[in-house]
Automatic annotation (TrEMBL):
Transmembrane segments: none annotated. The keyword Hydrolase applies. Belongs to the glycosyl hydrolase 43 family. It comes from the Bacteria. CDD domains: GH43_AXH_like. The keyword Hydrolase applies. PANTHER family: ENDO-1,4-BETA-XYLANASE, PUTATIVE (AFU_ORTHOLOGUE AFUA_2G04480)-RELATED. Keywords: Carbohydrate metabolism, Glycosidase, Hydrolase, Polysaccharide degradation, Xylan degradation. Pfam families: Glyco_hydro_43. It comes from Algibacter agarivorans. This is Glycosyl hydrolases family 43.
Amino acid sequence: MNLKILFSFFVIALMSCKNQKNQTKEKQVEKLEVSIEKQQNNPVIRHIRTADPSAHIWEDGKVWMYTSQDMEDATFYDSMDGYHAFSSTDMVNWTDHGEVLHSKNIPWGAKGWMWAPTAIYKNNKYYLLYPHSVKGTKEDMRCGVAVSDEPEGPFKDIGWIEGVEGQWLDPCVFTNHDGKTYLYWGVKEPKMALLKDNLLELAETPRTIEYGAENFFEASYMHKYNGKYYYSYNAGLGGFYAMGDSPYGPFEYKGAINPKQRQDHHSIIEYKGQHYFFYHWQNWNGGSKFSRNTCIEYLYYNEDGTIQEIYATKEGVKKIK
């Protein structure tokens, strides 16, 4: 065969091999980009707008999360309605159990105005405690109570707690190791009180929480770790916290917990040996401060019990295998 023809075949074969390698490389890059995209697990709920996540580990060993629901084109919080229950066993894939309580099911309240809920398992039942407006203003909120035999609801309203009213409240309910249950709430001035076992009455006169600072705005939260009580809240410019030896305090102010997330409204759990921080943000898919999205980050404690600062990420947390 002519040497020129042989050389031509060699060049064509070489170019074909190079093109195949380039195509393979491009496919690898494409797969890598898809893989990276899949690792962006925040927000964890994307088919609806959710906020104010209240996370819990119930008797079934699952993580349960109760959220408020923002409307897509909302211009204020009055249109919030229809609490949702979500469950997960791997922290990434969440089952939506649908609306578990709606304002249409509350005979004493206005349409909408279903703000940040909290949840508790007590008396062999599941309870939602939630702020809701009587007449449709933020000044006449009450702390409603609803009950269910199942964590996924539906929940039935059974009234409100007398002595807990005013502006948007943001209640948090906490049960101590001795079985006593406490309610934390308030806006601008944090309040707390022991609850009676029926969860519909205060067992004592409300008291103001002493937390060593003056930056409280809303979203009280209480959790316990290694014998210490952690009172945390939203300061209007992120989440902050204080530590104490009693559910009543006094608490020693420790500073920021989630300092860059302006609308921080969080809850904290330990699941399968890892601590998690639930919160909401607005910076996803055209969100706003009225159309928010639930996210999760890892939470870590220092040796002295203080909490390492948390920053919002698109990556979020990894799937538990």
